[in-house]
Design brief:
The complex is a heterodimer of chains A (about 375) and B (about 525).
Chain A: E1 4-10, H1 28-36, H2 43-51, E2 61-65, H3 72-77, E3 83-84, H4 98-110, E4 115-120, H5 122-132, E5 138-142, H6 156-168, E6 174-182, H7 184-188, E7 194-203, H8 217-234, E8 240-243, H9 247-255, E9 266-268, E10 273-275, H10 280-289, E11 292-296, E12 304-306, H11 315-319, E13 326-329, H12 332-336, E14 343-345, H13 350-356, E15 358-365, E16 368-376, H14 381-386
Parallel strand pairs in A: 1-2, 1-4, 2-3, 4-5, 8-11, 11-13, 12-14, 13-15, 14-16
Antiparallel strand pairs in A: 6-7, 8-9, 9-10, 15-16
Helix pairs in contact in A: 2-6, 4-5, 8-9
Chain B: H1 41-47, H2 50-53, H3 71-83, H4 106-112, H5 115-118, H6 130-147, E1 151-153, H7 159-176, E2 184-188, H8 194-201, E3 205-209, H9 219-225, E4 230-236, H10 248-257, E5 261-266, E6 285-289, E7 306-310, E8 322-326, E9 329-333, H11 350-386, E10 406-409, H12 411-417, H13 421-429, E11 447-450, H14 458-477, H15 479-483, H16 509-515
Parallel strand pairs in B: 2-3, 2-4, 4-5, 5-6
Antiparallel strand pairs in B: 1-7, 6-7, 8-9, 10-11
Helix pairs in contact in B: 4-11, 6-11, 7-8, 11-14
The chains are: A alpha/beta (about 375), B alpha/beta (about 525).
Chain lengths: ~375, ~525
């Protein structure tokens, strides 16, 4: 059997903004300001820490590295002799940007990497996602300021151990992990707005990836299918429903035999896709014609039900959906992962948030629900920073 | 001559490791343990050929695919496996929290193996089994006194079977009341998961309550959950966290006001024997696991047994048969028109009923209360010892004492060192001890659940705490020692994620052969 191939991509500027209080590192201007404020690049260090648990396996796999500070130099310092992929991004040795990450990810895919470790933050995950989607198995080494994406291991060492297990495993398991990013401009102005950007394919071991207590892929899919079966049982014939983003709501669409816009909001009836990837004005126009129900699933590890990744569902829309036709779906393992924190709503309209606050029956499986607390969103923000 | 010095803690341990094959792999065609002589012609003339005398429906057309081995191979195989286990007769078995792994006195074992019990046949005439019927009748009365309930059945074969019987009685009672539309059962996430499971199997929708910020079941969530659809509340108290729900009577009141019935899971009643009762908290039903609180062996190490207690209103729905006593004569009553029917063949698990009866008789009422007091004292002593170990905490109810067990968290250790609770689980076996995490999903992160029961001495508890302290030190100084365990035990590091993928496990040899493509039959 040919040796497995492990790729390494480092975003050298990831994490620059964090320690100097800039809440992120996106864009050359912020990076310049960070360096001027005395920021020291740490991504290389974090990547090296991830490589450490892989040292005992050196020789048993081929290490592919992006050139220079994007991987090669860190791999050499860590005692590996990597095969260096040619630089194809615009920087080619200069200051790197998103296009360099994207180019490196594509190069790794072409070189047949079995697994690629990428060190960075949410922005880096977004770039990798743009380049290869779920077509390449990857794993994030947390090095950035913002780590909300589930594609990251809980620590660099955990990433290394998980990579080692994946390379050694004969039947390695994988799962789709959410790529979430904050709108950094809004965040610096004190308002949190996240976007569910897409999904990456990551190796899976119980507990080693962020958003930990979700079960294994087989278990997760089975749970999502069970949740979807219950949601579909509860749909009122003839009524149209807004179907929010996420893998749980995708399972609902699958149960209905319909396609789903993974990061967008669709409108469905029991058997028909009425509209895909709608914006607020489409929804309001629909509401003028017929009553709508709403099917939501919390996004990300923080339990946001509204206001993160589904801003199309605006306060005005929510006001016009009857509470009885609001279905919230969340597999029990994901609910347990909230660690007792309430589900959060942050629509930008306090009245609407107050309307939704209280207790809500959350569909957690087939004929299985939880009576769970919902709170207005602002109070969850410190939780988001802590994760 | 120098006196023998004290043994240092933790003590040295090394388990036998035989790398023993599965028994089917030891099989060779023609190997035999016992060679039976052919039936002599004279005997066959008199009584016929035994195999041919069997009814055709009981005869196999092809012989079973049993492994073929000599007697000493079989003996050696199982003797080796027995050296690769841990258990209550070998080590302080306090690491299997929620399971109440107490020591079962050997005298009760002798009673249960007495031929006067083992030679009984369940189809014997009642007149010839008065003794065991009397034991059952008296044990029912004792459990009635312990729970405060009006009637008790000993029919269920295990704890989950007892919960299932309770759910069936709730349904039968509500059907009789004309409330058949009630189809929702409420439980809590820290209740024993068999409550939700049994209700699901019985066809109910299940609403689960999560803890409030202090770790208690959320009363406001309960108020939001009850409705005209509520059939009942199935709840454990103290919960798996070892925290007693002080508002339990309020929970019962809220459900009763909504028209539901309340069933108290007392599978593990070890911390409350003689202290609180289901009756005083207002419950309509309750159940015990005799193999937890009442010292009989557990299901995996012997047959389990469950008991259900109910109020007079629920008594007509008890499973059949009930044991009745008329003028000193005991009989089994099957003629109960409102009964939910049979839940198990014949009488229930009689050897365990006798063990539990003997255990209660040896202690008396004061002794039972003492059991609970010592179990709680042991648990709080261990809690105090464990909380001094680096990296571990006891989430919820900070500063408060616990009842009979604690669900701890190694989250800090995992953050600091990358060593996880599931690594500790394996490393603990290297010190000759057992360890358990938690039911799924893990609501408490990096969980560990310890329940010392009343069986163990202070020295035993110190031994266990010393092992945890040692492993915490290892995690902080040389984490790879823990993450690469086992080193001195036979517990394997399994890929737990494969448990969720049916292609990756097999529970029988035949399924293994099929799933690996070796099945040629």
């Amino acid at each position: 059997m040919a040796p497995k191939r492990l790729g390494l991509i480092v975003n050298p500027v990831a994490g620059l903004g964090g320690r100097v209080g800039l809440k992120g590192s996106d864009g050359p201007e912020i990076q310049r300001r960070a360096l001027a404020l005395g920021a020291v690049p740490r991504a290389g260090e974090r990547a090296a820490a991830a490589l450490k648990p892989l040292r005992p396996l050196a020789g048993a796999f081929d290490l592919l590295a992006a050139p220079g500070a994007m991987g090669e130099s860190i791999a050499r310092q860590a005692g590996f002799a990597p095969r260096v992929l040619p630089a194809t991004g615009p920087a080619a040795g200069g200051v790197t940007g998103p296009e360099d990450t994207r180019a490196a990810a594509r190069a790794m895919q072409q070189a047949g990497a079995d697994l690629v470790l990428f060190a960075g933050g949410d922005g880096t995950a977004r770039d990798v996602c743009d380049a290869v989607g779920t077509g390449l198995t990857v794993l994030g080494v947390p090095a950035g300021v913002k780590i909300h994406s589930a594609a990251y291991a809980v620590s660099p060492a955990a990433a290394g151990r998980l990579a080692a297990a994946y390379l050694e495993g004969d039947r390695a398991l994988r799962r789709e992990a959410e790529v979430i990013d904050l709108d950094e401009d809004a965040y610096r102005r004190g308002r949190i707005a996240t976007v569910l950007h897409g999904y990456l394919m990551v190796p899976y071991r119980r507990g080693a990836v962020q958003n930990q207590k979700v079960p294994t892929p087989a278990g997760e899919e089975a749970q999502a299918r069970a949740v979807a079966a219950e949601v579909v049982d509860r749909l009122v014939p003839g009524r149209a429903y807004l179907l929010g983003p996420g893998t749980t709501t995708r399972a609902v669409a699958a149960r209905l035999g319909l396609p789903k816009t993974l990061v967008g909001v669709d409108v469905v009836t029991g058997g028909e896709l009425l509209a895909a990837d709608v914006a607020e004005r489409d929804v309001l126009a629909l509401l003028d014609r017929r009553p709508l129900g709403l099917i939501l699933s919390p996004i990300g590890g923080q339990g946001f039900l509204l206001g993160r990744g589904n801003q199309q569902i605006t306060p005005e829309v929510i006001r016009r959906v009857e509470r009885a036709h609001l279905l919230v779906a969340c597999p029990s393992a994901k609910l347990a992962a909230l660690r007792g924190h309430p589900l959060l709503v942050d629509t930008g309209d306090q009245q609407v948030d107050a309307l939704l606050a209280g207790y809500l029956e959350v569909i957690t499986g087939y004929r299985d629900t939880a009576m769970y607390r919902v709170a207005a969103g602002g109070e969850g923000d410190e939780n988001l920073e802590a994760s | 001559m120098k006196p023998i010095g004290p043994k240092p803690r933790p003590r040295r341990f090394h388990q036998a490791s035989w790398d023993e094959p599965v028994i089917f792999e030891l099989s060779r065609p023609g190997q035999r343990g016992v060679l039976l002589p052919p039936v002599e012609a004279e005997i066959e003339r008199e009584v016929g050929h035994p195999a041919r005398e069997l009814p055709g429906t009981l005869r196999r057309t092809t012989p079973p695919a049993l492994p073929e081995l000599s007697q000493n191979q079989v003996l050696r195989h199982y003797a080796r496996l027995s050296q690769e286990t841990l258990g209550v007769d070998l080590n302080p078995d306090i690491g299997q929290g929620t399971c109440t792994m107490k020591y079962s006195p050997k005298v009760n074992e002798q009673l249960a193996r007495n031929p006067r019990l083992t030679e009984l046949h369940p189809l014997q005439d009642e007149a010839t089994v008065q003794g065991i019927l009397e034991v059952m009748h008296r044990l029912e009365a004792m459990l009635g006194e312990i729970s405060g309930m009006d009637r008790v059945t000993l029919q269920p074969g295990a704890g989950s079977a007892a919960i299932y019987a309770n759910v069936c009685m709730i349904r039968a009672c509500q059907a009789a009341r004309g409330q058949g539309e009630r189809d929702e059962v409420i439980t809590t996430i820290f209740s024993h998961p068999s409550n939700a499971a049994a209700a699901r199997v019985a066809g109910y929708r299940v609403i689960t309550l999560y803890p409030d910020a202090d770790g208690y079941p959320d009363l406001e969530a309960l108020k939001a959950a009850v409705s005209p659809r509520t059939a009942g509340l199935l709840i454990t108290n103290p919960e798996d966290t070892g925290i007693f729900n002080p508002r339990i009577a309020e929970f019962v009141r809220v459900v009763h006001e909504a028209g539901g019935l309340c069933s108290y899971d007392q599978a593990n009643a070890n911390g409350i024997l003689g202290i609180t009762r289901a009756r005083e908290a207002g419950f309509d039903l309750c159940h015990f696991n005799l193999h937890k609180t009442f010292s009989t062996p557990h299901g995996c190490g012997g047959p389990g047994a469950g008991a259900c207690g109910v109020t007079a209103e629920l008594a007509p729905f008890l499973p059949v048969p009930t044991v009745e006593c008329d003028d000193g004569r005991y009989r089994l009553d099957y003629e109960r028109p409102q009964s939910i029917g049979k839940v198990r063949p014949f009488y229930g698990v009689t050897p365990n009923l006798l063990r539990a009866y003997a255990w209660i008789m040896s202690l008396g009422a004061a002794g039972l209360r003492r059991v609970a007091e010592i179990a709680v004292l042991n648990n709080n002593y261990l809690l105090h010892q464990v909380l001094q170990i680096r990296g571990v905490s006891a989430p919820y109810a900070a500063g408060k004492r616990r009842i009979e067990q604690v669900r701890y968290s190694w989250e800090q250790l995992a953050r600091d060192t990358g060593v996880r609770s599931e690594d500790l689980e394996i490393r603990v076996a290297d010190y000759g001890m057992h360890y358990w995490t938690s039911h799924h999903p893990f609501v408490v992160p990096e969980p560990m659940t310890l329940e010392p029961t009343e069986s163990y001495s202070r020295a035993d508890l110190d031994d266990y705490a010393a092992v945890l302290r040692q492993i915490s030190d290892e995690a902080y100084s040389r984490p790879e020692v823990v993450t690469t365990a086992p080193h001195r035990s036979t517990v394997h590091r399994t890929r737990q994620e494969s448990f969720d993928d049916p292609d990756q496990w097999a529970v029988t040899w035949r399924a293994y052969l099929r799933k690996t493509g070796q099945d040629r039959g």
